[in-house]
Amino acid sequence: MKKILAISIIVIMLLSCTLLPVSAALPPLVFGDVIGYDGIDITDATAVQRHVANIDTLHDTELYAADVNADQKVSIIDATYIQQKVAGLIDVFPAGRECYIDLYTDALVADYNSTTATVGQEVTFRAIASGGPGPLMYEFYVDEDLKQEKSEQNVYKHTFAQTGTYKISFIVTSKAGLTRSESIYLTVNDPVESGWIVVNNVYHLGFYDTYTTFEAVACDGYGPYEYKFELYKGAYPPESFGTLVEKTEFSSSNSFTVSKPLEDCTHYTLYVEIKNDLGMSVVEEYQFDFQLPPPA
C-alpha cells in the first residue's frame, strides 16, 4: 500500500490582531441614590414618587437603584424606605448598601471563521460577556434583523442560505439595565471539496475570567484530530517567536486553558497545530493584545 507522505503546513496570518475592548470599571451603584449625585437625600425619594405617579420616568440603573426593598419593582414603598433612610430611621435598605454593576462584552465567537463558513452549514455563535448583576440577557441579530429575542441563552445557531458577508451582533443586558454590544463580520462562501485539514476558527472564551481558555475548530481533513497549543508573549514573527509562556503536547482536546492569568497591556501570539493520523498537519496563528479595564 502506498504510504502517504504528504504534509501540509499552512500558517495563516490573521488580517488584524484581536484587541480587547477596554472601558473604565464603573463605580458601585448605591441603593437609594436614584439621582446619582450628592448621596441619598429627599430628592431621591421625590424622584421615585414622580416615577410612580407617571410624571417622570426612571431608566436603567436609576430603576435598579430605586428598588431599595429588592422586590423587582419600583413603588411608593421604595420612596418610603428612602425617606426613612434620610430621617435616620433605618441604616440599611433590604437591598443592601451598594452593588457592582460592571458589564463587559469579552467576545462574539463563531465555530467558523470568515471565509471558512459555507452555504448550508450551520454556524454556532457564542456571546461571551461578564459582569453583573445577573442574570445577563442576550439578543442576537443578523444584518440588524433580530433573530433571537432576549433570553439567558448566549448561544445562537444560524444556517446561511446565500453567499455574502453578514454582520452578526449581540446585545447583552444586565439586571441593572446596563447594555453592551459586540459585532463580527462573517463571509460565507460556496462549499468546496477539501481533503486537507481546514481550521475553521481559533478564539478565546472570555478575557476577564481568571484563566483564559482558547479553542480551535477544524474540519474537512481525515480525522480524528490532535491539537497542540503554544502561547508566546511578544511574538512578532518572523523576527521572533517571543517568550514561550506555556504549551501543551498533542492531544484530542481542542481546548487550552492557561495556568495563570494573562499579563495586562501585553501582546500575545497563540500557535495551534492540528494533525491527523495520515501525517497531515496545519498551523494557525492567533494574535491579540490583552488589556484589563482601568479602575473606576
Structure description:
This protein is mainly β. Helices cover 10% and strands 40% of the residues. A hairpin with an 8-residue loop joins strand 13 (198-204) and strand 14. Helix 1 (42-52) runs antiparallel to helix 3. Mean pLDDT is 83; it is low at 1-22.
Question: What is the H/E order?
Answer: EEEHHHEEEEEEEEEEEEEEEE
First and last CA, distance: 67 Å
- Percent of residues in helices comes to under 10%
- State the low-pLDDT regions, or none: 1-22
Number of helices: 3
What sort of overall outline do the alpha carbons produce when their principal axes are compared? elongated
Main sheet attributes: strand count, strand direction, barrel closure: 6 strands, mixed
Mean pLDDT comes to: 83
Q: What is the tally of beta strands?
A: 19
Classification by helices and strands? mainly beta
Beta-strand content bin: 35-45%
| Rg, Å, rounded | 25 Å
Structure summarized in a few sentences:
By secondary structure, the protein is mainly beta. The protein is built from 3 helices and 19 strands.
